[in-house]
Amino acid sequence: MASKMLLRENASHPDAAEVFASWLETMNHHLETGNAQRIADLFLPDGFWKDFLSLTWGFRTFAGPLEIAGALGPKFGESGLRSLRIAQNRIAPHFCRRGGKSVLEAFFDFETDVGHGTGVTRLVRDEDGDGQWRAWLFLTTLQSLTGFEERIGAHRRSGDEFSKNTTVENWLDFRTAEQENAAHNPPVIIVGAGHAGLILAARLKAMGISALVIEKDARIGDVWRKRYHSLTLHNQVFANHMPYMPFPETWPVWLPKDKLANWMEAYADALELNVWTSAELADAHYDADTGEWTATIKRGDGTTQQVKSPNLVMSTGVSGSIPKRPSLPGIENFDGPVLHSAEFTRGDDYTGKHVMVVGTGNSGHDIAQDLYVRGAAKVSLLQRGPTCVVSLEPTAIRTFSVYGDGTPVEDVDLLTSVIPYPILEDTYKWITRKSKVVDQDLIHDLETAGFRTFYGDDDTGFHMMYLRGEGGYYIDVGCCDLIIDKAIEVIDYETLSGFSAGAVNLENGQSQPCDAVILATGFENMQENVRKLLGDDVADKVGRIWGLDENCHMRNMWKPTAQKGLWFMGGGLIDARLFSRYLAIQLIANLEGIAPAHQNPN
Fold this sequence. Notes:
Blueprint: H1 2-5, H2 16-33, H3 36-40, E1 43-52, E2 59-63, H4 64-79, E3 82-86, E4 94-98, E5 101-111, E6 115-125, E7 133-145, H5 160-163, H6 171-180, E8 189-191, H7 195-206, E9 212-214, H8 222-225, H9 257-270, E10 274-276, E11 279-287, E12 292-299, E13 304-309, E14 312-314, E15 338-340, E16 354-358, H10 362-373, E17 378-383, E18 388-391, H11 392-399, H12 409-417, H13 421-438, H14 440-448, H15 462-467, E19 473-476, H16 479-484, E20 488-492, E21 496-500, E22 503-506, E23 511-513, E24 516-519, H17 526-534, H18 536-542, E25 566-568, H19 573-592
Parallel strand pairs: 1-7, 8-9, 8-14, 9-10, 14-25, 15-24, 16-17, 16-24, 17-20, 18-19
Antiparallel strand pairs: 1-2, 3-5, 4-5, 5-6, 6-7, 11-12, 12-13, 21-22, 22-23
């Protein structure tokens, strides 16, 4: 039986679906017999199995057959993993090159005792062994819980109650009542109606759970609308689609922030999300006896309302929203405005002025360029540390190029998710080596102009810096030329003596006029949002948020935390689209008592 199921490649051009179906047949056989060692034998010695919720109720990676059989093996029976089959609504099995290897790449669907899953694998023919196809990379993800499948496509709501006139209420009556009653013991409260909060609410709504989303700004989308005037997303529109409502095909490749802001407003309306605007979380306390949060919400009219819910989700920025304001020597002597990039809107206010921008990441460069374009008399960039600089094209777009080939975006999300951290690290080092070649003239000219560059502490480049929560990178959309041409001056922090009333003073005794200082210095860790809203005890209990944990997954993000009932939703549009599904599933599993009691918050 095994020889039949472990199909050898005898033909010069084997059929990918046939090879993969045979491999799955073997996997299913060993799952049925509960033989963890035989399952592990289907993997290469350097193979990986990643799991998102389906076996472990966490985000875990298992390396090598020994770890797969030992650590993951007991989960096979506990989870009821079974019925692996070629996915019907995904890319068909195919041969391709990935990571320098010739692989068979394929999607598969499966069942567990609580729901339905989808996975992706890359099989490699074991030329150093017996010539059989074995898994190099293997990912299992829980896509839905039984009874809480997304109501989309063939499973969408019929609307018969309105179309057949079976009720005195029409759709608008129903929708108005739903919004009015949104604060009546909602199963989930989401703090923040940015893109991440809205996407999570949309996932929950599609699965039959209506969350209450509170947003301190007056309009949905103001979190983007209020950012600096020139802001445009630095990755292509193909990568940034939101679930259920992809951006129109007529939209530009580079997405302006106001276009995104307006889309978010339409998104919330079209997907019937319950969002309170001009509503701010003033306080929240968790009662361990009742298992509920009591949230005090301050409304725009000055009134407050208490709302109870078992789940409180903080969605207050990619990784935080409290401005980081570093101490600069002598800044107390300066009599001009000192504002954070979060408060900066447009360079028109500084026409004819001398402005110093502190910080050389994306925001610092964008703001400096905006000031120059809009006629500031002089723009200086104060550089406090080396910066990872990459060209927009071809370097930066290479990181997201897989999203631009027409492959369905949620398929691409899984294709990128299958990559374990060690291989991801090697991949980014490879991209960085390419970057050093194609960007060598750019980097040389920047260094000549006195701008310090690097590619991260371990040469993994800008995107790994983002994943690690480090910041300190710039995707060049034009400011580099201004620096190289000395249209924008770079001042090294080490040469800064301090500030006087209307000037910047340097160590060499020189000074130059300064009318305003703009701090493009990033944001505090989201833990500080917790400290501000929920107090020191909860903040210290939860710890830092974002950056990679011991499992090489985002710390405290999209999963249970040390504070029961407290969750975090953040990241860019790609992160939010991918992980919103898994956070929604976990929230529902906890509401329904499906998640195991021993679920590990780490």
